[in-house]
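Journal club prep, notes for RB
We'll compare a predicted complex against what the paper describes. Inputs for the flavin-adenine dinucleotide case:
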Amino acid sequence: MSGTETSPAARHLAGRLRGDVALPGDPGWDEARSAFNLLVDQQPAAVAFPLDAGDVATAVTYAREAGLRVSCQSTGHNRGPLGELDGTLLVDMRRLDAVEVDPAARTVRAGAGVKWERVSPRLSAHGLAARHGSSPDVGIAGYSLGGGIGWLGRKHGLQANAVTAIELVTADGERVRADADHDADLFWALRGGGGNFGAVTALEFGVLAVEEVYAGALFFPFERAPEMLHTWRELIAGELPDEFTSWAKLLHFPPIPNIPESVRGQSFAIVVAAYLGPEAEGRDLLEPLRALGPVRDTFATVPPVVLGDLAMDPINPIPEQSRHALLDELSAETVDALLAAIGPDSGRGSTLTLFKLRQTGGALGREAEGAGALAHVPGTACAFAAGVVAVPQQLAEVEDTLAALEAALAPRRVGRLGNFVEQPADASGFYGEATWARLRAVKARHDPADLFAGNHRVPPAEAA
Ligand SMILES: Cc1cc2nc3c(=O)[nH]c(=O)nc-3n(C[C@H](O)[C@H](O)[C@H](O)COP(=O)(O)OP(=O)(O)OC[C@H]3O[C@@H](n4cnc5c(N)ncnc54)[C@H](O)[C@@H]3O)c2cc1C
């Protein structure tokens, strides 16, 4: 079936769902099918907007009976890997938006459509913080199912492994609550194996007591990227407490109105960091970088809600191409190679809007007890780069620069995290061999007909 034709089944679904269904040709069709990355142009068979878990079960059952596949999303931030979506019902969870915070038990229950921006401020008001990532706009569901690394990860591990229960609709339309004692294989696979095993309707997870953090950014002119990157590299190669997490970034703020005037159109080399400890200790840790003389220093002791905005991530949809790699070690040679690819003297100027290196290691590098499919993150740094493609003519230049950067980082690449991979990819490379085999076995047990299309595909194991 072509994705642009409306199947009779999709029309039938519209009559059965309490929520809405958008079909090709409907007035709101283009908005309903749009993704965060504006370069992604998908044509699903229909988009369902269920109101509750019962509605999700109805949508899943209809899709299965009609021979459609099902792909779930909470925000559409990582739709790029899904490809065309022909013959697929997109189930948009945005209306499953209930949030319950229990400050005494330090737990959260969130509907599958909830973004971090609805949870982090509430937690912060209680002196609590979640293991969220760099953007408040990201969905808790997709982030958690893909692993989820954030500012607290080096001390407290992956968000996926803080999840204590997941409610979902399985391929046969059953509503299931998976936890360590019930459907434990599904519970294991969902925590890092992504959206391949069912339509998640709610998640429960533990959060942490965090009253304050010493956090902020040091801005240097882009031309000083070599000094800054080498100093940062030496810093993270040394002995650092797990309470300290830092990033190095090269950022070219686009010359567009919704960027603050003070930085609009300007280029910077930036160190961003958060320290879960006293300010004096945080200052000592940052001293080698501060000694370089930043042009702007925003560090302060702040409530944890500030971590949501620390990275200055985009919150509006953008047309972008990106690449990502996990690096085993950041050697001086690697820094020189990446500077040759995208640094101030590379001749590629601001082709990429953003390049960031996140410090990993600490608890992220250790296998968590009772962990799901993503038990740890290999390497010491996580690289991500993105270039905005405002007009089609920019695409070749952005691709060429991303390729140069990838080549510079290739000798140190030890893996990739699905959350940061925004193109179709062979997901077997995200896991060790045994984990991949186990994920495929769980998929074969719970979704043998491959109904659910996760952003990164886990195919069912073939029958022995
Ligand atoms: C600005 C920005 C900053 C980011 N920062 C970080 C970061 O700091 N750390 C990090 O780890 N990641 C980060 N990411 C990556 C992010 O975690 C992934 O893009 C993630 O997949 C987004 O989840 P989502 O629910 O928002 O997106 P969606 O596109 O809605 O979902 C992504 C995938 O998750 C699965 N999924 C989502 N909801 C459901 C559901 N209800 N049931 C079943 N499957 C579902 C599906 O496979 C879906 O294709 C960032 C992304 C962006 C755009």
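Talking point for the session: The chain has a mean pLDDT of 95.
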